[in-house]
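Exercise 7. Given the encoded structure of a 380-residue chain, write a plausible sequence.
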């Protein structure tokens, strides 16, 4: 029997979720964030599906933009970490890539790049550190940074001021209002700056949770990532959970079944010991596929229409599931690890992490199968 472990990716769910972002923020454009292989879903396939709907894409690093161009994607691509060399600036300028500028070193590269050599004007997004303290210019340094860039005739005069929330998954947290205030103070000051009247400043702040629940942060551009993939957006259950459709259905199958007696243990280190006569199903997925090793004795899978506990340690290529209470489990049965029935965030919580981590961590060994009608398949 062949190994049935795969990630079924529902492209219609991604379209549905993108349209939700537009509905929830109808004064904004939404740039589809497809970094990290579209959060594990396959950047090329997701980009091809979304290209007719979106105005632009965002990726984290230069190489991700190059591979999307090689795949034939033509809409603008924002590189969230910007570029690290003159050669990369040249590529961006001739390949319709937008550049985040978050550090003086990148300003130096842009100024060095003899930009007039290139045909297209470069569109910049300027990152402001409004409180995350990870990337971006201090509020007091933004004006002088723009003055350095203003000399270049090859830089587009429409600049997107950008910042990122550190507490967006907890919208009531006061940090969000604090960052909003700092961000808008920078914007207001730049608009009044007589040295910078050539520029037209627009703004981008909201990521997925802020799109769903912080309308004050919606500006010309929002940056939805995780919501496109349908994972729930907040640390606690939220009304929007039911609106989003999970796009990834990570499944595997039963490859072995056995009965064990009370007192017998299962798996490496014998970490789980049967309290009663038990039926154990071995499922062909392990940490090398991206199933989190941290969940031992503490997670559930979906099998034969029921939830069943993962017991013992997660192995490299297998997990073991207690199916004592589920009738008629057989070899070859499909097992959902996360997706429609088991939200990825639930597994993530049990693993001490977040859905983003599990989705991006599904390994290259797992084939992605693209479908457009997953509800039909799931109904089988
Ligand atoms: C990843 C990322 C996003 C998307 O965030 P989500 O929480 O996935 O919506 C937006 N902006 C920046 C700068 C990012 O790095």
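Solution.
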């Amino acid at each position: 029997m062949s190994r049935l472990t795969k990630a079924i990716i529902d492209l219609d769910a991604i379209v549905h979720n993108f349209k939700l972002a537009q509905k929830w923020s109808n004064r904004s454009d939404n740039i589809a964030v497809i970094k990290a292989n579209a959060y594990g879903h396959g950047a090329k396939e997701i980009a091809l599906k979304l290209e007719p709907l979106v105005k632009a894409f965002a990726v984290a690093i230069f190489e991700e933009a190059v591979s999307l161009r090689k795949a034939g994607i033509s809409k603008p691509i924002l590189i969230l970490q910007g570029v690290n060399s003159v050669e990369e600036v040249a590529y961006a300028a001739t390949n319709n890539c937008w550049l985040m500028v978050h550090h003086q070193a990148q300003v130096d590269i842009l100024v060095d790049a003899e930009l007039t050599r290139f045909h297209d004007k470069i569109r910049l997004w300027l990152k402001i550190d409004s409180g995350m303290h990870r990337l971006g210019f201090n509020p007091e340094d933004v004006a002088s940074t723009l003055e350095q860039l203003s000399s270049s005739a090859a830089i587009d005069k429409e600049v997107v001021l950008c910042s990122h929330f550190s507490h967006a998954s907890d919208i009531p947290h006061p940090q969000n209002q604090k960052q909003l205030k700092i961000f808008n103070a920078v914007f207001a000051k730049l608009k009044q700056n007589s040295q910078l009247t050539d520029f037209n400043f627009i703004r981008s702040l909201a990521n997925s949770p802020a799109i769903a629940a912080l309308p004050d942060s919606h500006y010309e551009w929002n940056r939805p990532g995780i919501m496109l993939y349908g994972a729930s957006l907040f640390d606690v259950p939220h009304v929007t959970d039911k609106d989003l459709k999970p796009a990834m259905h990570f499944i595997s199958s039963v490859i072995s079944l056995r009965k064990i007696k009370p007192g017998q243990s299962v798996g490496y280190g014998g970490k789980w010991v049967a309290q009663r006569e038990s039926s154990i199903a071995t499922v062909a997925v392990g940490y090398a596929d991206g199933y989190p090793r941290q969940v031992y004795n503490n997670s559930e899978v979906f099998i034969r229409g029921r939830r069943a506990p993962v017991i013992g340690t997660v192995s490299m290529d297998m997990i073991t599931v207690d199916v004592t209470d589920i009738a008629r489990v057989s070899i070859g049965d499909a097992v959902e690890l996360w997706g429609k029935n088991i939200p990825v965030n639930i597994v993530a919580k049990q693993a001490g992490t977040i859905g983003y981590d599990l989705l991006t961590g599904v390994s290259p060994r797992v084939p992605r199968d693209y479908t457009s009608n997953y509800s039909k398949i799931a109904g089988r």
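Remark. The first helix runs from residue 11 to 24. Students should compare their own answers with the one above.
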